């Protein structure tokens, strides 16, 4: 029986090749987008699942003692290094404790005495690292891989790239972590580790032994620390035990520091520490949104696109109902049951869904390299660790879509009364017609929403890109290295160089350094940016009042500050030449300039009230040490400047190449995520509108066929072609009007929510709603007219000759 039904299904699908092709293509597009999201979710959920032993590993997280956010302390992934020994001695079932951290500066490596080059993903760890994390060694022994201070372990990919098929264990390489501070260190390669089957937060190329540090009462040494137990722990119980050890330790340290964190304690906070499962480090990141929250908009878009595809499929299937009515009638008369007919139509649906799945996978495979590049991913349909899961998900997805898209058409087609069908009367009631109209209307609600959304998103991004950021990033390169006076002077003397400056509040760096300042007997914690005397001029800061720092004013390196307009407004205005104090009023500084707000973090957040200081010792606990160098140059002489800069740098630091970025490019990167979102919405808009047009076309075909005799009778009674044309179009125009009425408030709410995430944003425009309405009406009229035209031009005799 199944074989017979399969033959009938294949014959019917082949007979209606055009409808079948459109059905499969439309569903394939929706499936391709949805499968991409499935792969993305699988990828993110697979983080750090490459070995069962990782279930026994925990990260030590400590409550931040030094800063509060809205009166509350935040957990941090780094903890005091002293805790490692305390955990080993004080907690049961501890196998090993280790710490690992990524190098703060770019790392340069020399292999076989060839030229130095930069490598990324360099990690430092102690000798217990491989006792906690069970990496598999291709070469070498985990027990002694990081035993000595100059030991180095490299990844499988790194070994293949730079050593080929040769076993690199025993080879000596040179590693330089900073041009002017650390000397070049020789490392011996002691092991090569296999790449984990799933992604990991430790995606390193090189792992070296971390230097041993001696703890002192005044030293703070916070690093990511990890503990491995002999078995999986009860989080609540183990954290209670750890807290009992931690509280007296931290209380003793605070007493030695002579520091009473009164503000910290008065908010109900207290020093605390906890252990979190290693798996949660990626799944529940601290101080940032997790991947699922970031992915929600894309999940929604892909789900809507798949929904449109399913609706389109249903409408296309039912549009063929009239042509298959007699087939159903004859099969029923010859003994076929309704259940067998439903199975027949579901089989046809399943065949189309299966073909759509194959086409969707092919489409995704073709576009996956582009999507991986756009989203900085490494997704693959055939990953060894996920191929089984993906296969099950795809089978489940096809089954679900077969039921969702096929059950109604199957019931609809199998419901024909053979008596009426064989008499020629197989018109259906209004119930099915209303449902099809509602489904197409839903398609257009989504399509119109997409269209309005992309217009508003494009307007917001254009506004952000054209808004004055308060500085000029063109013709500036950023070097994240301290430069001594001799080197700075040599670079300053290059023809075309305007400034060699320090500014740690630029786009690439902008560290969150704050300090307490007092004005009008009120203490405020304010953002503080370190510059040198040319640091603001170099970035083209815009002076509103007063002057910039200047070498002619000796007090500028110790007793003056410049503030931004946000801080001046916070203090009530007219701040020029006023005095601000810090360190319990022991230091008094004068405001010598007010500049326009410099927006270095994009436009998602308000530019904070900020103080700029050129003093080496200031209100913060940090010194203005000359990092974050900016070189401003004449863009017409860019090639000459860069060539001379590289030449001077190589002479001064042969083992550490020059590493820099263009500030203009860094600034544009702030908009990359928003631009990607815009492109994604644009793609989904195009696909949803296209599929909606197909759905409308199929509905028009179905409804026109249903009204063939009505049209013929009207023509016989003298109705003019133009009257019939407008009569048939009228219903669809009302449908589109209704879709706009429903879509507009929904997309208004959604876009308002999206715009609320920007500190600087456009007002909600009316123009996109008008454009969407006009375009949707025109597209509807054109799409429907193609079908209506054929019906109007048909000879009424052909429709009425059997009556």
Automatic annotation (TrEMBL):
Ranges for domain MacB-like periplasmic core: 20-243, 445-613
Designated name of the protein: FtsX-like permease family protein
Domain named ABC3 transporter permease C-terminal: residues: 300-417, 683-796
Highest taxon in the source lineage: Bacteria
Keyword Transit peptide carried by entry: no
Annotated localization: Cell membrane
Protein's membrane topology: Multi-pass membrane protein
Transmembrane recorded as keyword: yes
Transmembrane segments: 21-43, 298-317, 345-370, 390-416, 437-457, 683-704, 732-755, 767-786
Organism the protein comes from: Pedobacter frigoris
MF (Gene Ontology): transmembrane transporter activity
Pfam families assigned: FtsX (PF02687), MacB_PCD (PF12704)
A GO cellular component annotation in the UniProt record: plasma membrane
Subcellular location, principal: membrane
PANTHER family in alphabetical order: ABC-TYPE MACROLIDE FAMILY EXPORT SYSTEM PERMEASE COMPONENT 2 (PTHR30572:SF18), MEMBRANE COMPONENT OF TRANSPORTER-RELATED (PTHR30572)
Keyword annotations from UniProtKB, A to Z: Cell membrane, Membrane, Transmembrane, Transmembrane helix
